Amino acid sequence: MAMTDKEVGLKRRELETWVAETGVRIRRYSLDERLRKPEDERKSDRGVELRPKADEAWQEWLTIREKFDQLPSGPTPAELNKVEYLWLELERKVDLIQRDLISEQSKTGGIKTVLWLVGALVVLIFIFLGTHGVRWFDFSGFEPWPEWGPLKYGDVAFWSSFGVLCNLLFLATYYLARRDFDVYYEFWYLSTALRAPFLAVILMIVILEFTEWYGEGTWIETYLLEEGNKSYFIAFMSFCLGLASDRTSRIIRDLAEGVGDFVQHAVARISQRLSTAVSQTSSPQK
Q: Burial level of 120, CB count in 10 A (0-12/13-18/19+)?
């Protein structure tokens, strides 16, 4: 059965993600302390067989990455399958390297991370319900916060936190199931969970405060921002921004670059005017 252009594009994006993830795995395994050469040559070296395997895997990964980058903008399924088969062969070799590196520390770290993520999510849910009028599981008293004014960004922070915690839970259990949880990523989970609400609030300020300007007279104003619908719009958008926290961070960086350019140009103009004013008021000494 022939694949549609949409299916080909989806498979290309998935293959790009898989290849990138394999590259990250090889780099992590190469940095494992068990692959480090011992300072005392007389000591047993567990990594004597794994070091060359990791180096060979990295070279194969570079070749596959090059072949993927050489794909045309509209590749055929056969071209994608060729790269995918090469990736599958490499993935098997990387699995064999991982088999010798699996440790009890990885399992313990993964379980701890999953437990604190679950605990944080449960606590956050109770705080959210409590601040919205729910008492003793009586949801009839639920009252959403005002859709207008600064208080609405409290809902943005809550829903984006729900989104990022759900995403981190998926990632932690995914790597735990693959017996590939890296304990050095524990603080990455923590930092991602803490920064996501702030990034989502900033983006939602841009969306909500400027939507009324560029969406005036359109269905955005008459439907999304209509009284009663706006709270659902806020919850949906905030949860998605938290769920896609990596992309949200990239968007914020692009926005920050634009703000930086704006400030730089503004300061340059002010400096130019000040220097011109000084040159005009200064008189030559006689």
A: middle
Task: Give helix 152-177 / helix 230-243 axis angle, nearest 10°.
Answer: 30
CB atoms near residue 137 (< 10 Å): 6
Q: Give the containing element (helix H, strand E) for 28.
A: helix 5-30
Q: Tokens standing for 56?
A: 């060979």
For residues 171-182, one letter each, b for 16 or more C-beta atoms within 10 angstroms of the residue's C-beta and e for the rest, the string is bbbebbeeebbb
Q: Tell me: the pLDDT tens digits for 29-79?
A: 888 887 777 665 655 566 778 888 999 999 999 999 999 999 888 888 889
Question: Taking a C-beta distance cutoff of 8 angstroms, is the pair 124, 158 a contact?
Answer: yes
Report d(CA 83, CA 65) in Å as an integer: 9
- Tracing tokens 């004014």 back to the chain, one arrives at 149
